Amino acid sequence: FYLTPAQVNSILKANEYSFKVPEFDGKNVSSVLGFDSNQLPANAPIEDRRSAATCLQTRGMLLGVFDGHAGCACAQAVSERLFYYIAVSLLPHETLLEIENAVENGRALLPILQWHKHPNDYFSKEASKLYFNSLRTYWQELIDLNSGETTDVREALINAFKRLDNDISLEAQVGDPNSFLNYLVLRVAFSGSTACVAHVDGVDLHVANTGDSRAMLGVQEEDGSWSAVNLSYDHNAQNEHEVERVKMEHPRSEEKSLVKQDRLLGLLMPFRAFGDVKFKWSIDLQKRVVESGPDQLNDNEYTKFIPPNYHTPPYLTAEPEVIHHKLRPQDKFLVLATDGLWETMHRQDVARIVGEYLTGVHHQQPIAVGGYKVTLGQMHGLLTERRARISSVFEDQNAATHLIRHAVGNNEFGTVDHERLSKMLSLPEELARMYRDDITIIVVQFNSHVIGAYQNEE
Amino acid sequence: AAGMFLRLLSDIQWRAAHPKWRRMTRSQRSTSTTAEPHPVSLPAQAQVVICGGGIMGTSVAYHLSKMGFKDIVLLEQGRLAAGTTRFCAGIVSTARPVSIELKMAHYSNKLYQQLEQETGVQTGYMKTGSISLAQTQDRLISLKRIASSLNVMGIPCEIISPKKVLQLHPLINIHDLVGAMYVPEDALVSSANVSLALATAASRNGVQIHERTSVSHVTIQKGRVTGVETDRGRIQCEYFVNCAGQWAYELGHSGEEPIHIPVHACEHFYLLTHPLQEPLSSSLPTIVDPDGRIYIRNWQGGILSGGFEKNPKPLFTEGRNQLEIQNLQEDWDHFGPLLSALLRRMPGLEALQIMQLVNCPESFTPDMRCIMGESPTARGYFVLAGMNSAGISYGGGAGKYLAEWIVNGYPSENVWPLDLKRFGTLQSSRTFLRHRVMEVMPLMYDLKVPRWDFQTGRQLRTSPLYDRLDAQGARWMEKHGFERVKYFVPPGSDLLDLDHSKTFYKPDWFDIVGSEVKCCKEAVCVIDMSSFTKFEISSTGDQALESLQYLFSNDLDVPVGHVVHTGMLNEKGGYENDCSIARLSKRSFFMISPTDQQVHCWAWLKNRLPDDSNLVLEDVTWKYTALNLIGPRAVDVLSELSYAPMTAEHFPSLFCKEMSVGYANGIRVMSITHTGEPGFVLYIPIEYALHVYNEVMNMGQKYGIRNAGYYALRSLRIEKFFAFWGQDLDAFTTPMECGREFQVKLDKGMEFLGQEVLLEQKQNGVYKRFTMFILEDHDTDMDLWPWWGEPIFRNGRYVGKTTSSAYSYTLERHVCLGFVHHFDEKTGEKLVVTTDFINQGEYEIDIAGQRFQAKAKLYPFSSLFTQRRRKDEVELSGYQRE
């Protein structure tokens, strides 16, 4: 069984998406040129999600990757909802009032986000009303709390993450009269998701991370070479600070049982996550909800199972770590990706491959005829060959696709091996998960001219 | 490279005849940049100073001097014919879709043909003919349309089969062709030499030419050109002509008061080869393959081939020095697709050796038409630039028209489509120009179907209702930067389909517009018409009335609250503008004119109104949103909203009153609709726009109100034989020629501009007559649709062209409007056109070579005017515009 290059391409490109910020959108010149994103499933269905949107009532752009576990319900919900929570947290008091008044009076709402979605990135229609009501409660509280202070992005991100996780938990506890929705909110709460979200506004880049997805900045050094700068810390057993944090939050008596086999309570890889109420709720609450829940939930061994050594919940939080970075002209791109990428590729290689991809086209020497004797046919052949070369090296129109091609198909020499690529992509569903994880990547490209201009202003 | 250019500039004998230049130009004409002394000092003053020594500048100098102007100075910052002109491919082609451009090219061709004999300078003129190829049926239709208009101008032209193409040009691969257009009299020239020949003749006629002299800026005082500052001193002058090509924009902006000239350069590539083994004949026709985006001409035994690629490279957005034009790089990767197209068209050329890929920037304009005329803000400041890479084709004719403009006050033809005043300051944004020319350059060879719209540089000027209308399915077009609704796509329609309504046949919005028209006839529709130009003229005493009575042809001394349709005529009685004027009070007037009149009409009035601080002219276009309520139920909607009776007894036709609508006060309501249907136009201060719109839509619901767009308006006005300015009416059309004598105060004993000509026409008759044609044997579903510019035949003989057309949903026929002439059968001389002449002919309209029978009418169908209000006040032949 063997996939042709065209078949390989159609698999790799099935989920690719590109967005180019208009050169001049009439409002402001953006520090973001655009982004490429893509995902390659290993699970069926894929448990990763991605989101990208432009904030319409404040400045800035939001991008995020979400790695779900124990199903995709939580990652799906977070991918639909988190950006609204962030956008609302960033809104000034007056805008919140305006929106509330509009809802109150049944007028059209100000649009808050402009989504940049691949056709496969869907939103749940059934739950939109429920989600909206929770969001509205949040902004109503923000209106009541009116601190009069300008909103700090870091704080807004942290608040939004915590609030959404809280709402997910509450919705599951309260339930819903509609049986479909009731089951949905429970699935969301009992599954889990990491989140790695970037907010870019001019030269201010904030990355909020919960879990083990990762954000990395691609930097071009003066000599033209590429290096990587981490903009997030993995929340897993390899991170000493995380292990330390978890241990601090629970009694010494649990120290040994907290982290086993590099997993939280011997079960969970990421140390922070949305959902996963099994690691957050008390045993009583879990039992009560499961018992009163629908039969499907009761039949599910996983949800009924209480983690061992479960004494002092919560063990898990959705609170993100936020890193702020002032963009410089040498910062060319940002890669957000789920652990499926980082397991197979070193960040240094990621920086080099994306960097060379993004600039590669410009490195080709221009042709000059000069004094040589060249015929039209020869020139035509030469140009055709150059175009072919460009399209083979850069047959991907999308940096994320290019990266996935390398992640899946790289041989020991660091070049893409078609045979390997073909094998990896033709693995049967049940085997795929053994060889690779879901991979989701967003590559954001920055506009160095704009960033330079910002710098000069300051 | 230098050697090649020297060959292009082969003839240098002309200099011998002119000792005073010889010293300046003695050294090699190479790229040497060392400064040479200027032996001849600049004059302190001149009547005309021309800036730019390319084909445009030399052509203007040539024609001005021929027309008797003596005191002319031409300044060139580098060398004569050293800019774009030097690199120009030298193809003189008359196949132009715009009729005035076609006329310019035709004149240029005739001029260049005899230029060598006149001046003794070799111009390389060679009548090779040209063949435009069609790879698709649609392309062939567009060629047939051009062929029709060439033929009626007496320019030989035929549609030929692919086989015939092969006979004319043996190298062409014809397997993918469906046909072609052959224009046997098209020619090739060396454009630099044409330019030098024109300079030579001009110089003999006394024009002083100074090279290596840069104009730094033009001085303007009290709205008039007073002189030119150069790097070699100042020249006082009466007229200045900006022929600076790609630098016209910079030069316009260099003075204290900027002159906005919207041109922007793009890189343009063409290829030169060594001769073929058996050198190509110099009489081989030029090939234009628009579907392949290329042109190919013979060049010194080899070929010269270039094109207009899909992805142009704009340059000089920031403005640069001319010297850089020498150093532009060849870009083979960019040229690749054009090279492929060339080898596909002429596979036999594979072994031909490349000489060079020339990168020669061309300047483009926002609407693909060149720019000429006088600045609206500085009298005496003339412009001729932005040739959209057809400089050599237009050069002769454009120079002639501009010279006529300076000498006679206006060219001998209507050049409004090219007039600088069609643009305002808004088209002068660098970002706008950069984006727009990237669309314009590929458009050179794109298929141009009826009613296409530019996609870039949009949403510049909008009504406050824009978002509201857009959300209801509005599809937009643009006029003078203003977004206007074409029609509304009903919810549930297939949007994708509608965006591809590009066809020469029945478009897919046909039924949508039909239902809007129906609603206008039976209920009531709202059309946002905010784009119209609105002026207010007021004075402390009677100055406003007195001045306007002279400048406008209809009697404006009407009771307060009346609206008058009137022309704004020139000395020759032609329409400079066509407008509605409401008398707001004894001393103030509110004037509505077409959207693209904003700059032209302003300049016309400014230049002619007395310099009196008590007489105020104000542009209030932006202050009002205009809603046109069309239909029999408009009266009900409005009376319910205003609690005022709106019936004909209380609110007669052609009436204007300020009243309240909903909560909003001070709405100017006029009982006109621009369509002949009953209804009103509401001029609403913009802050009330949304409120009034909402009120009208809410109240209108029970009367079946709906939104409508300009396509519906257009169909309504054309079926009622309403002419509109800019399409049917122009500066060469008088009210007498379009049946509007009733809008002229000839019998009032009052003096007004254009009066003598009108009186003379009243006495002796007119030489053309505006006529309505109903297509008889035309199948709306199957046949090509008329657009405008279609030749009209009377008893088999050409008598004129259509100026606009639309489908009438009421008559269920196509209606074309156009002018009928009476050419003497033997001499071609224009004779008087009588009513009998019109009525006693059998007519045919030629759509892309196919003739359709048409019935001519001089008066509209009275049955179409549904509600006769008062017999004498029906808006018969009221003015109209789009």
UniProtKB/TrEMBL annotation, chain A:
Q: Which family does it belong to?
A: Belongs to the PP2C family.
Q: Where is the PPM-type phosphatase domain?
A: 32-446
Gene3D superfamilies this protein is in?
PPM-type phosphatase domain
Q: What is its EC number?
A: 3.1.3.43
Keywords attached to this Swiss-Prot or TrEMBL record, sorted alphabetically, are:
Acetylation, Calcium, Hydrolase, Magnesium, Metal-binding, Mitochondrion, Protein phosphatase, Transit peptide
- What is this protein's function? Mitochondrial enzyme that catalyzes the dephosphorylation and concomitant reactivation of the alpha subunit of the E1 component of the pyruvate dehydrogenase complex (PDC), thereby stimulating the conversion of pyruvate into acetyl-CoA.
Q: Name one GO molecular function term.
A: [pyruvate dehydrogenase (acetyl-transferring)]-phosphatase activity
The UniProt catalytic activity note for this protein reads:
O-phospho-L-seryl-[pyruvate dehydrogenase E1 alpha subunit] + H2O = L-seryl-[pyruvate dehydrogenase E1 alpha subunit] + phosphate
The entry describes its oligomerization and partners as: Heterodimer of a catalytic (PDP1) and a regulatory (PDPR) subunit.
Q: Which cofactor does it need?
A: Mn(2+); Mg(2+)
Instruction: Give a Gene Ontology cellular component term annotated to this protein.
Output: mitochondrion
Enumerate the PROSITE patterns for this protein: PPM_1, PPM_2
Pfam families in the cross-refs: PP2C
Q: What class of enzyme is it?
A: hydrolase
**In which compartments does the protein localize?**
Mitochondrion
Q: Which domain of life is it from?
A: Eukaryota
Q: What is this protein called?
A: [Pyruvate dehydrogenase [acetyl-transferring]]-phosphatase 1, mitochondrial
SUPFAM superfamilies in alphabetical order: PP2C-like
Gene transcribed to yield this protein: Pdp1
From TrEMBL, chain B:
Task: Report the subcellular localization.
Answer: Mitochondrion matrix
Q: Does the keyword Transit peptide apply?
A: yes
Q: What is this protein called?
A: Pyruvate dehydrogenase phosphatase regulatory subunit, mitochondrial
PANTHER family, per database record = AMINOMETHYLTRANSFERASE, PYRUVATE DEHYDROGENASE PHOSPHATASE REGULATORY SUBUNIT, MITOCHONDRIAL-LIKE
Functional description taken from the UniProt entry: Decreases the sensitivity of PDP1 to magnesium ions, and this inhibition is reversed by the polyamine spermine.
Q: How does it assemble?
A: Heterodimer of a catalytic (PDP1) and a regulatory (PDPR) subunit.
Q: Which InterPro entries match?
A: FAD-dep_OxRdtase, FAD/NAD-bd_sf, FAO_M, GcvT/YgfZ/DmdA, GcvT/YgfZ_C, GcvT_C, GCVT_N, Rhodanese-like_dom
- Predominant location category: mitochondrion
Q: Which family does it belong to?
A: Belongs to the GcvT family.
UniProt keywords, alphabetically: Mitochondrion, Transit peptide
Matching Pfam families, A to Z? DAO (PF01266), FAO_M (PF16350), GCV_T (PF01571), GCV_T_C (PF08669)
Name a single GO cellular component: mitochondrial matrix
In this chain the Rhodanese domain maps to 48-91
Residue ranges of coiled coil: none
Q: What is the lineage of its organism?
A: Eukaryota, Metazoa, Chordata, Craniata, Vertebrata
Signal peptide location in the record? none
